[in-house]
Amino acid sequence: MSLYSSDVSDVGVESSTPALAWGPVIGGSVAAAATTLILLLLGSGVGLTMVSPWAGESASFTAVSVTAAIWFVVVQWLASALGGYLTGRLRTKWAGIHTDEVFFRDTAHGFLSWALATVVVAGLAGSAFTSLAGTGVQAASTVAATATVAGSAAAANSDASPDAATGYFTDLLLRPQDLTTRAQGDDVSATAEISRILVQGAVNDGVPEADRAYMSAIVASRAGVTPEEARARVDQVLQQVEDAKNAALKAADEARKSAATVAMLGALSLLVGAFIASAAAALGGRQRDDEDAALIVKR
Fold first, then answer.
1. Which of 25-29, 117-121, 150-154, 235-239 shows the lowest mean pLDDT across its residues?
2. How does DSSP classify residue 19?
3. What DSSP state is assigned to residue 204?
4. How far apart are CA 87 and CA 115, in angstroms?
5. Could you tell me which of 234, 196, 241 has the C-alpha nearest to residue 217?
6. CA 197, CA 191: separation in Å to the nearest integer?
């Protein structure tokens, strides 16, 4: 039975008890954050059992991604429910307050508990990401320094070197038809020139006909093939370059779509988690008051 009396005027009277109890909010958020970390570690352990470096013994990338996404949603909802429920059960009873106001305060406390737990988990995840990024930058710097030293050593031994991005395709173009013989003349300058043509063609979304004819002439001269065979080889390699470029663009577009989907699903999951935490806090608060009322009746 509520102690609230609608016929008593309390205009100008302010209660000395604050409506916000930070103790239950902090306690519920700490429990939710700890539960999130435990469940995430458990999910990581289970997920590692799904992958394997051996061919044919690992789950597909799609299966692993979908399973991880579902598990993240489940973790968010379970942790939110636990944190919100503890927040509602741990708060003290508000005497002389209407039941509607009690329900509002419980839901607000559950929401604040969810928000604080989300900030804590996001901070921990951000720290881990920053550490991982720092390690990656350090590794990249080491690789870059090694590449610089190797490049300097190579430059000391030759006047020109093929571009790394097109070196493979250039090797295909200049590969002799008869592997027992080598093309006459110095291939270094021709290789560097063809590399620049390929780079220019990739930037301009296509190789002009004049450059195609020029490369065909170089291939015919250096690889020891007929002009027709040289032109066929040029067209084949340029098609491979175009296919590789399209594959990279497709992969980037799929990654963009996947990131957008994950972001929207993550936001939706957080909103649902906030609702679950608020509802769980209201449930916990109602059960706490019901048990207190039942104890009074027994007495």
1. 150-154
2. S
3. T
4. 12
5. 234
6. 10
